[in-house]
Amino acid sequence: MYIKGRYIVSACALLFFQQALASGMDCTKAASVVENAICADKPLYELDAQMGAAYRKLMKAAPAQADVKKAQRQWLKERDRCGEEVSCLKRRYQDRLQILNAQWLDAVAYKPDDIDKQVIEDLQQRVREMSKENPEFALERALNSMTLGYVGSSFSAELDEDEQPLFPTTIPKDVTQDEWKALQASDIKGAAESGQTSYTLMDLDGDGQRDLIVETYSGGTGMFHYTETWRRGDSRFIRRTAEIAPQNSNDSVLFYTNDRGANQAVYLIGARGKIYFAYQNGSYGEDQVYLLNPLKINRQVPTISVRYDYQLTVPHTQYIEDSDKAYELEPSLQKVLAKAVTGLDTNTGMTGQQKKPLCPIPQSAKDIEEYYGYGASYYAIEPVADFPVIIGDDCYVARLINWFGSYDEKNGLFAKLTMRKPETESQERGYTVNGRRHITQVSTSIGKAEGGAETY
Protein backbone atom coordinates (compact mmCIF):
# COMPACT_ATOMS: atom_id res chain seq x y z
CA MET A 1 0.00 0.00 0.00
CA TYR A 2 1.35 3.45 -0.97
CA ILE A 3 0.06 6.73 0.40
CA LYS A 4 1.25 10.03 -1.10
CA GLY A 5 1.06 13.23 0.51
CA ARG A 6 1.53 17.04 5.59
CA TYR A 7 2.85 18.78 8.36
CA ILE A 8 1.25 19.26 11.79
CA VAL A 9 2.74 19.89 15.18
CA SER A 10 2.05 17.23 17.84
CA ALA A 11 -0.16 18.31 20.80
CA CYS A 12 1.09 15.70 23.26
CA ALA A 13 1.58 17.40 26.61
CA LEU A 14 0.97 15.67 29.92
CA LEU A 15 -1.76 13.56 28.36
CA PHE A 16 -1.26 10.66 30.69
CA PHE A 17 -2.87 12.64 33.52
CA GLN A 18 -6.30 12.15 31.99
CA GLN A 19 -7.33 9.76 34.72
CA ALA A 20 -9.01 11.14 37.81
CA LEU A 21 -6.55 12.85 40.11
CA ALA A 22 -5.11 10.60 42.73
CA SER A 23 -5.26 11.78 46.31
CA GLY A 24 -2.66 14.40 47.13
CA MET A 25 -0.71 14.64 50.34
CA ASP A 26 -2.53 14.24 53.66
CA CYS A 27 -2.88 17.86 54.73
CA THR A 28 -3.80 16.88 58.29
CA LYS A 29 -0.17 15.82 58.61
CA ALA A 30 1.38 18.85 56.86
CA ALA A 31 4.37 19.95 58.92
CA SER A 32 6.84 21.90 56.78
CA VAL A 33 6.48 25.38 55.28
CA VAL A 34 6.32 23.82 51.81
CA GLU A 35 3.63 21.28 52.73
CA ASN A 36 1.46 23.98 54.33
CA ALA A 37 1.87 26.18 51.23
CA ILE A 38 0.75 23.29 49.01
CA CYS A 39 -2.29 22.53 51.15
CA ALA A 40 -3.31 26.20 51.19
CA ASP A 41 -3.35 26.51 47.37
CA LYS A 42 -5.83 24.32 45.45
CA PRO A 43 -4.05 24.41 42.02
CA LEU A 44 -0.78 23.60 43.76
CA TYR A 45 -2.41 20.77 45.69
CA GLU A 46 -3.74 19.36 42.40
CA LEU A 47 -0.25 19.53 40.93
CA ASP A 48 1.01 17.56 43.90
CA ALA A 49 -1.72 14.96 43.32
CA GLN A 50 -0.74 14.71 39.65
CA MET A 51 2.86 14.33 40.73
CA GLY A 52 1.96 11.39 42.92
CA ALA A 53 0.04 9.69 40.11
CA ALA A 54 2.81 10.37 37.58
CA TYR A 55 5.54 9.11 39.87
CA ARG A 56 3.69 5.88 40.68
CA LYS A 57 2.97 5.31 37.00
CA LEU A 58 6.62 5.77 36.07
CA MET A 59 7.73 3.45 38.87
CA LYS A 60 5.58 0.68 37.41
CA ALA A 61 6.98 1.16 33.90
CA ALA A 62 10.62 2.12 34.50
CA PRO A 63 13.24 -0.64 34.30
CA ALA A 64 15.53 1.18 36.76
CA GLN A 65 13.35 2.09 39.74
CA ALA A 66 16.31 3.00 41.92
CA ASP A 67 17.27 5.78 39.51
CA VAL A 68 13.71 7.13 39.51
CA LYS A 69 13.66 7.20 43.33
CA LYS A 70 17.01 8.95 43.47
CA ALA A 71 15.94 11.61 40.98
CA GLN A 72 12.68 12.17 42.86
CA ARG A 73 14.48 12.66 46.17
CA GLN A 74 16.80 15.19 44.50
CA TRP A 75 13.83 17.02 43.05
CA LEU A 76 12.13 17.20 46.47
CA LYS A 77 15.20 18.96 47.82
CA GLU A 78 15.04 21.48 44.96
CA ARG A 79 11.32 21.96 45.51
CA ASP A 80 11.77 22.65 49.19
CA ARG A 81 14.17 25.51 48.42
CA CYS A 82 11.10 27.43 47.18
CA GLY A 83 9.77 27.65 50.72
CA GLU A 84 6.26 29.09 50.71
CA GLU A 85 6.64 30.92 47.37
CA VAL A 86 3.72 29.52 45.35
CA SER A 87 4.95 30.64 41.90
CA CYS A 88 8.29 28.94 42.50
CA LEU A 89 6.60 25.74 43.65
CA LYS A 90 4.33 25.68 40.61
CA ARG A 91 7.29 26.01 38.26
CA ARG A 92 9.09 23.19 40.06
CA TYR A 93 6.06 20.90 39.78
CA GLN A 94 5.32 21.73 36.14
CA ASP A 95 8.93 21.15 35.11
CA ARG A 96 9.08 17.86 36.98
CA LEU A 97 5.78 16.66 35.51
CA GLN A 98 7.12 17.25 32.00
CA ILE A 99 10.22 15.23 32.82
CA LEU A 100 8.19 12.39 34.31
CA ASN A 101 5.93 12.41 31.26
CA ALA A 102 8.88 12.12 28.89
CA GLN A 103 10.49 9.38 30.98
CA TRP A 104 7.24 7.43 31.13
CA LEU A 105 6.76 7.67 27.37
CA ASP A 106 10.32 6.44 26.88
CA ALA A 107 9.61 3.53 29.22
CA VAL A 108 6.40 2.40 27.48
CA ALA A 109 7.48 3.17 23.90
CA TYR A 110 8.58 0.43 21.55
CA LYS A 111 12.31 -0.31 21.53
CA PRO A 112 13.70 -1.32 18.11
CA ASP A 113 14.98 -4.89 18.29
CA ASP A 114 17.67 -6.73 16.32
CA ILE A 115 15.22 -7.60 13.53
CA ASP A 116 14.25 -3.94 13.09
CA LYS A 117 17.89 -2.94 12.91
CA GLN A 118 18.61 -5.65 10.37
CA VAL A 119 15.66 -4.54 8.21
CA ILE A 120 16.97 -0.97 8.00
CA GLU A 121 20.42 -2.33 7.13
CA ASP A 122 18.80 -4.50 4.43
CA LEU A 123 17.08 -1.43 3.03
CA GLN A 124 20.34 0.50 3.02
CA GLN A 125 22.09 -2.27 1.11
CA ARG A 126 19.22 -2.46 -1.38
CA VAL A 127 19.38 1.30 -2.02
CA ARG A 128 23.12 1.12 -2.62
CA GLU A 129 22.75 -1.75 -5.05
CA MET A 130 19.93 -0.07 -6.98
CA SER A 131 21.81 3.25 -7.10
CA LYS A 132 24.39 1.60 -9.38
CA GLU A 133 21.74 1.23 -12.08
CA ASN A 134 19.50 4.17 -11.22
CA PRO A 135 21.08 6.84 -8.98
CA GLU A 136 17.97 9.06 -9.21
CA PHE A 137 15.25 6.72 -7.94
CA ALA A 138 17.15 4.05 -6.02
CA LEU A 139 15.34 4.78 -2.74
CA GLU A 140 11.86 4.65 -4.26
CA ARG A 141 12.66 1.46 -6.16
CA ALA A 142 14.07 -0.19 -3.05
CA LEU A 143 10.93 0.68 -1.08
CA ASN A 144 8.64 -0.44 -3.89
CA SER A 145 10.44 -3.79 -4.00
CA MET A 146 9.49 -4.34 -0.34
CA THR A 147 5.93 -3.02 -0.58
CA LEU A 148 3.17 -5.50 0.28
CA GLY A 149 0.72 -6.35 -2.45
CA TYR A 150 -2.06 -7.48 -0.11
CA VAL A 151 -3.59 -4.81 2.12
CA GLY A 152 -6.55 -6.67 3.60
CA SER A 153 -10.26 -5.92 3.42
CA SER A 154 -11.25 -2.26 3.04
CA PHE A 155 -14.53 -0.42 3.44
CA SER A 156 -15.60 3.22 3.66
CA ALA A 157 -17.41 5.35 6.21
CA GLU A 158 -21.03 6.31 5.70
CA LEU A 159 -21.87 10.01 5.44
CA ASP A 160 -24.70 11.58 7.42
CA GLU A 161 -26.92 14.40 6.15
CA ASP A 162 -24.22 16.93 7.07
CA GLU A 163 -21.57 14.99 5.13
CA GLN A 164 -19.89 13.89 8.35
CA PRO A 165 -18.28 10.41 8.25
CA LEU A 166 -19.91 7.75 10.39
CA PHE A 167 -18.74 4.21 11.05
CA PRO A 168 -20.86 1.79 8.94
CA THR A 169 -24.07 0.59 10.49
CA THR A 170 -24.19 -2.68 8.54
CA ILE A 171 -21.51 -5.31 8.23
CA PRO A 172 -19.21 -4.56 5.27
CA LYS A 173 -18.19 -7.15 2.70
CA ASP A 174 -15.36 -9.54 3.69
CA VAL A 175 -15.68 -8.68 7.42
CA THR A 176 -16.33 -11.72 9.60
CA GLN A 177 -19.10 -11.80 12.20
CA ASP A 178 -16.48 -12.01 14.95
CA GLU A 179 -14.64 -8.94 13.58
CA TRP A 180 -17.90 -7.03 13.18
CA LYS A 181 -18.86 -7.72 16.77
CA ALA A 182 -15.45 -6.48 17.95
CA LEU A 183 -15.67 -3.39 15.72
CA GLN A 184 -19.09 -2.48 17.12
CA ALA A 185 -17.75 -2.80 20.67
CA SER A 186 -14.84 -0.42 20.02
CA ASP A 187 -16.39 3.06 19.50
CA ILE A 188 -14.31 3.60 16.37
CA LYS A 189 -14.41 7.01 14.72
CA GLY A 190 -12.42 8.66 11.97
CA ALA A 191 -9.02 10.15 12.72
CA ALA A 192 -10.46 13.62 12.05
CA GLU A 193 -13.76 15.31 12.77
CA SER A 194 -14.69 15.42 9.10
CA GLY A 195 -13.49 14.14 5.79
CA GLN A 196 -13.43 10.99 3.72
CA THR A 197 -12.66 8.02 5.94
CA SER A 198 -11.78 4.44 5.04
CA TYR A 199 -11.05 1.37 7.13
CA THR A 200 -8.79 -1.61 6.39
CA LEU A 201 -8.61 -4.88 8.30
CA MET A 202 -5.17 -6.47 8.14
CA ASP A 203 -2.97 -8.50 10.48
CA LEU A 204 -0.21 -6.03 11.35
CA ASP A 205 1.56 -7.95 14.11
CA GLY A 206 1.39 -11.56 12.97
CA ASP A 207 -0.86 -12.81 15.78
CA GLY A 208 -3.42 -14.32 13.40
CA GLN A 209 -6.06 -11.64 14.05
CA ARG A 210 -6.69 -8.71 11.75
CA ASP A 211 -6.03 -5.25 13.13
CA LEU A 212 -7.60 -2.00 11.91
CA ILE A 213 -6.13 0.86 9.86
CA VAL A 214 -8.19 4.07 9.77
CA GLU A 215 -7.36 6.59 7.03
CA THR A 216 -8.94 10.04 6.89
CA TYR A 217 -8.63 12.90 4.43
CA SER A 218 -9.47 16.20 6.08
CA GLY A 219 -8.59 18.71 3.37
CA GLY A 220 -7.70 22.13 4.76
CA THR A 221 -4.80 24.28 3.59
CA GLY A 222 -2.41 21.34 3.57
CA MET A 223 -4.77 18.66 2.20
CA PHE A 224 -4.01 16.40 5.14
CA HIS A 225 -4.24 12.59 5.23
CA TYR A 226 -4.24 10.93 8.67
CA THR A 227 -3.55 7.27 9.45
CA GLU A 228 -4.49 5.71 12.78
CA THR A 229 -4.22 2.07 13.89
CA TRP A 230 -6.19 -0.13 16.28
CA ARG A 231 -4.93 -3.48 17.63
CA ARG A 232 -7.35 -6.39 17.82
CA GLY A 233 -7.85 -7.53 21.40
CA ASP A 234 -9.90 -10.41 22.74
CA SER A 235 -13.32 -8.85 22.15
CA ARG A 236 -12.66 -5.39 20.76
CA PHE A 237 -10.17 -3.19 18.90
CA ILE A 238 -7.83 -1.03 21.00
CA ARG A 239 -6.33 2.25 19.80
CA ARG A 240 -2.55 2.29 19.51
CA THR A 241 -2.32 5.20 21.98
CA ALA A 242 -5.32 4.36 24.18
CA GLU A 243 -3.18 4.41 27.31
CA ILE A 244 -1.71 7.86 26.82
CA ALA A 245 -3.90 10.02 24.57
CA PRO A 246 -7.58 10.90 24.19
CA GLN A 247 -9.18 9.43 21.08
CA ASN A 248 -9.70 12.69 19.19
CA SER A 249 -6.24 14.17 19.75
CA ASN A 250 -3.62 14.39 17.00
CA ASP A 251 -1.46 12.11 19.13
CA SER A 252 -3.65 9.10 18.38
CA VAL A 253 -2.48 9.36 14.75
CA LEU A 254 0.38 7.11 13.70
CA PHE A 255 1.41 9.51 10.93
CA TYR A 256 0.01 12.14 8.61
CA THR A 257 0.95 13.36 5.16
CA ASN A 258 0.58 16.75 3.54
CA ASP A 259 -0.05 17.31 -0.16
CA ARG A 260 0.83 21.00 0.08
CA GLY A 261 3.79 22.32 2.04
CA ALA A 262 5.65 19.01 2.31
CA ASN A 263 6.98 16.10 0.27
CA GLN A 264 5.97 12.93 2.07
CA ALA A 265 5.00 9.40 1.14
CA VAL A 266 4.27 6.15 2.98
CA TYR A 267 4.96 2.57 1.95
CA LEU A 268 3.47 -0.43 3.75
CA ILE A 269 6.38 -2.86 3.59
CA GLY A 270 7.14 -6.36 4.81
CA ALA A 271 10.57 -7.69 5.74
CA ARG A 272 11.94 -10.51 7.90
CA GLY A 273 8.47 -11.50 9.09
CA LYS A 274 7.46 -7.99 10.19
CA ILE A 275 5.28 -5.23 8.77
CA TYR A 276 6.22 -1.55 8.87
CA PHE A 277 4.91 1.77 7.66
CA ALA A 278 7.97 3.22 5.92
CA TYR A 279 7.42 6.97 6.22
CA GLN A 280 9.40 9.06 3.72
CA ASN A 281 9.98 12.74 4.52
CA GLY A 282 11.73 14.70 1.78
CA SER A 283 13.61 17.97 1.57
CA TYR A 284 16.14 19.54 -0.77
CA GLY A 285 19.18 17.28 -0.89
CA GLU A 286 17.90 14.60 1.48
CA ASP A 287 15.24 11.95 2.03
CA GLN A 288 14.60 10.44 5.45
CA VAL A 289 12.70 7.17 5.80
CA TYR A 290 11.44 6.06 9.22
CA LEU A 291 10.34 2.48 9.90
CA LEU A 292 7.25 2.86 12.08
CA ASN A 293 5.92 -0.04 14.11
CA PRO A 294 2.21 -0.04 13.15
CA LEU A 295 0.75 -0.77 16.59
CA LYS A 296 3.29 0.68 19.03
CA ILE A 297 4.31 4.07 20.36
CA ASN A 298 7.29 5.09 18.26
CA ARG A 299 9.89 7.26 20.02
CA GLN A 300 13.19 5.94 18.65
CA VAL A 301 12.82 4.47 15.18
CA PRO A 302 15.16 2.86 12.63
CA THR A 303 15.97 5.52 10.05
CA ILE A 304 17.66 5.60 6.67
CA SER A 305 19.01 8.89 5.33
CA VAL A 306 19.75 9.35 1.63
CA ARG A 307 21.63 12.47 0.57
CA TYR A 308 21.78 13.88 -2.96
CA ASP A 309 23.78 16.31 -5.04
CA TYR A 310 22.10 18.06 -7.95
CA GLN A 311 23.24 19.15 -11.36
CA LEU A 312 21.14 22.29 -11.69
CA THR A 313 20.25 23.79 -15.07
CA VAL A 314 18.27 26.83 -16.20
CA PRO A 315 16.28 25.80 -19.31
CA HIS A 316 16.45 28.06 -22.37
CA THR A 317 12.68 27.72 -22.70
CA GLN A 318 10.85 29.41 -19.85
CA TYR A 319 7.13 29.60 -19.13
CA ILE A 320 5.21 32.57 -17.80
CA GLU A 321 3.81 31.68 -14.38
CA ASP A 322 0.20 30.41 -14.40
CA SER A 323 0.29 30.35 -18.17
CA ASP A 324 1.16 28.06 -21.07
CA LYS A 325 2.97 30.89 -22.84
CA ALA A 326 6.67 30.26 -23.35
CA TYR A 327 9.63 32.43 -24.24
CA GLU A 328 13.33 31.89 -24.89
CA LEU A 329 16.02 33.28 -22.60
CA GLU A 330 18.74 35.38 -24.16
CA PRO A 331 21.91 33.26 -24.27
CA SER A 332 23.91 35.75 -22.20
CA LEU A 333 21.23 35.85 -19.45
CA GLN A 334 20.85 32.07 -19.47
CA LYS A 335 24.60 31.74 -19.00
CA VAL A 336 24.60 34.14 -16.02
CA LEU A 337 21.69 32.38 -14.34
CA ALA A 338 23.12 28.91 -14.93
CA LYS A 339 26.43 29.98 -13.37
CA ALA A 340 24.63 31.46 -10.36
CA VAL A 341 22.88 28.20 -9.45
CA THR A 342 25.81 25.89 -10.16
CA GLY A 343 26.88 24.00 -7.06
CA LEU A 344 24.17 25.43 -4.81
CA ASP A 345 23.23 23.34 -1.79
CA THR A 346 21.85 23.94 1.69
CA ASN A 347 25.31 24.80 3.02
CA THR A 348 26.44 27.35 0.43
CA GLY A 349 23.93 30.13 0.94
CA MET A 350 21.63 30.02 3.92
CA THR A 351 18.35 31.87 3.65
CA GLY A 352 17.45 34.79 5.87
CA GLN A 353 19.73 37.54 7.09
CA GLN A 354 23.34 36.96 6.02
CA LYS A 355 26.34 38.17 8.01
CA LYS A 356 27.50 40.13 4.98
CA PRO A 357 25.36 41.95 2.42
CA LEU A 358 24.68 40.04 -0.79
CA CYS A 359 24.72 43.24 -2.82
CA PRO A 360 26.79 46.40 -2.19
CA ILE A 361 24.96 48.89 0.04
CA PRO A 362 24.93 52.40 -1.45
CA GLN A 363 25.22 55.45 0.79
CA SER A 364 21.66 56.39 -0.20
CA ALA A 365 20.22 53.14 1.17
CA LYS A 366 17.18 53.55 3.40
CA ASP A 367 16.62 49.90 4.35
CA ILE A 368 19.92 48.04 4.55
CA GLU A 369 18.17 44.78 5.50
CA GLU A 370 17.05 44.57 1.87
CA TYR A 371 20.66 43.82 0.91
CA TYR A 372 21.22 40.95 3.36
CA GLY A 373 18.53 38.46 2.34
CA TYR A 374 15.57 37.80 0.10
CA GLY A 375 12.96 38.08 2.85
CA ALA A 376 10.13 35.98 4.24
CA SER A 377 9.11 32.77 2.52
CA TYR A 378 5.82 30.92 2.02
CA TYR A 379 5.01 27.74 3.92
CA ALA A 380 4.21 25.71 0.79
CA ILE A 381 7.73 26.07 -0.60
CA GLU A 382 11.19 25.29 0.75
CA PRO A 383 13.86 28.04 0.50
CA VAL A 384 17.27 26.59 -0.35
CA ALA A 385 19.73 29.48 -0.54
CA ASP A 386 20.04 33.26 -0.86
CA PHE A 387 22.81 34.55 -3.12
CA PRO A 388 23.66 37.45 -5.45
CA VAL A 389 23.16 37.48 -9.22
CA ILE A 390 25.06 40.10 -11.22
CA ILE A 391 23.57 41.14 -14.55
CA GLY A 392 25.61 43.88 -16.19
CA ASP A 393 25.97 46.64 -13.60
CA ASP A 394 22.98 45.50 -11.57
CA CYS A 395 23.12 43.30 -8.46
CA TYR A 396 20.08 41.22 -7.61
CA VAL A 397 19.31 39.41 -4.35
CA ALA A 398 18.24 35.95 -5.44
CA ARG A 399 16.72 32.90 -3.78
CA LEU A 400 16.48 29.32 -4.97
CA ILE A 401 13.27 27.63 -3.83
CA ASN A 402 11.83 24.16 -4.40
CA TRP A 403 8.99 21.97 -3.19
CA PHE A 404 10.77 19.98 -0.46
CA GLY A 405 12.81 17.92 -2.90
CA SER A 406 9.83 16.81 -5.00
CA TYR A 407 11.24 14.90 -7.95
CA ASP A 408 9.89 13.26 -11.10
CA GLU A 409 11.28 11.36 -14.02
CA LYS A 410 10.54 14.05 -16.65
CA ASN A 411 11.94 17.19 -15.01
CA GLY A 412 13.90 15.81 -12.09
CA LEU A 413 13.93 18.50 -9.42
CA PHE A 414 11.56 21.35 -10.14
CA ALA A 415 12.78 24.59 -8.60
CA LYS A 416 12.52 28.33 -9.09
CA LEU A 417 15.07 31.11 -9.09
CA THR A 418 13.46 34.34 -7.89
CA MET A 419 15.39 37.61 -7.73
CA ARG A 420 14.83 41.28 -7.00
CA LYS A 421 16.80 44.50 -6.85
CA PRO A 422 17.06 45.84 -3.28
CA GLU A 423 14.93 48.91 -2.53
CA THR A 424 13.22 49.04 -5.91
CA GLU A 425 9.56 48.71 -6.77
CA SER A 426 10.22 46.71 -9.90
CA GLN A 427 8.57 43.29 -10.01
CA GLU A 428 10.42 40.19 -8.97
CA ARG A 429 11.95 38.14 -11.74
CA GLY A 430 11.45 34.38 -11.72
CA TYR A 431 13.00 31.57 -13.73
CA THR A 432 12.49 27.81 -13.79
CA VAL A 433 15.40 25.69 -12.59
CA ASN A 434 15.64 21.93 -13.08
CA GLY A 435 18.06 19.50 -11.52
CA ARG A 436 19.18 15.91 -11.86
CA ARG A 437 20.22 14.22 -8.66
CA HIS A 438 22.57 11.44 -7.71
CA ILE A 439 23.08 9.78 -4.35
CA THR A 440 26.15 10.85 -2.41
CA GLN A 441 25.52 9.12 0.92
CA VAL A 442 23.29 6.43 2.42
CA SER A 443 23.34 5.97 6.19
CA THR A 444 21.23 4.42 8.95
CA SER A 445 20.54 5.41 12.54
CA ILE A 446 18.09 5.02 15.41
CA GLY A 447 16.44 8.29 16.36
CA LYS A 448 13.37 10.49 16.59
CA ALA A 449 11.14 10.75 13.55
CA GLU A 450 10.33 14.10 11.93
CA GLY A 451 7.61 15.50 9.70
CA GLY A 452 4.20 13.88 10.00
CA ALA A 453 5.60 10.90 11.89
CA GLU A 454 6.75 13.10 14.80
CA THR A 455 3.97 12.66 17.32
CA TYR A 456 5.73 12.57 20.70
UniProtKB/TrEMBL annotation:
Residues 1-22 form the signal peptide. Coiled coil: none annotated. Keywords: Signal. Pfam families: LprI (PF07007). InterPro entries: Integrin_alpha_N, LprI-like_N, Lysozyme_Inhibitor_LprI. The keyword Signal applies. Transmembrane segments: none annotated. It comes from the Bacteria. Residues 27-98 form the Lysozyme inhibitor LprI-like N-terminal domain. This is Lysozyme inhibitor LprI family protein.
